[in-house]
Amino acid sequence: MVWKKLGKPDSISLSLPRSRKVCGYEIKKVPLGAYLKAMRNLQDFPAQLMEAIFPGMALEDILQELKGCNTDMLGQWFMRAAGVAPEQVIALVSDLTGIPHEELVQNAAIGLDGFVGILDAWVEVNGIENFIQTVSGLRAKAKALTAETTGFKG
């Protein structure tokens, strides 16, 4: 594989906008460190979500409850999760865009549609779709290479 020379832009980089303005906020490309920091801040999210859905329950009790799951229980779990998940999403978007949390929540000019627009702009400016496609391609190549070298096709 031939790696591109550093500093030489490729066609994907050239086609990405450097920034986009949404609801009066400039959404910019962030360095990898900002993305990693945001992901680190989310590390406790699964535990917080499980505690919200199954307050005070041990893992054994949760598994037992899951065995008897019905539509009423799913509705209850969804409502409990809805109280935790939005706050985590807002915190993540705040970390990634630099827009203060309070402004995302309180600014009436943003609203739900503006929030989604901000998130969409961040995905576009930071080339997230390109990243996902590249990682998927690398995964397929790694799988093929593993199959060639080990004979394993799983």
**Helical content, roughly?**
55-70%
Element-level helix/strand string: HEEHHHHHHHH
Total number of helices: 9
Widest sheet, order of strands: 1-2
What does this structure look like?
With 154 residues, the chain is mainly α. The protein contains nine helices and two strands, in the order αββαααααααα. The chain has a two-stranded antiparallel sheet.
Structure summarized in a few sentences:
The chain is built from nine helices and two strands, in the order αββαααααααα. With 154 residues, it is mainly α.
List the helices and strands and how they pair.
Elements: H1 11-15, E1 19-22, E2 25-28, H2 32-41, H3 45-53, H4 59-67, H5 71-82, H6 85-97, H7 101-106, H8 111-125, H9 128-150
Antiparallel strand pairs: 1-2
Keywords:
mainly alpha, 154 residues, flat, two-stranded antiparallel ribbon, 2 strands, single chain
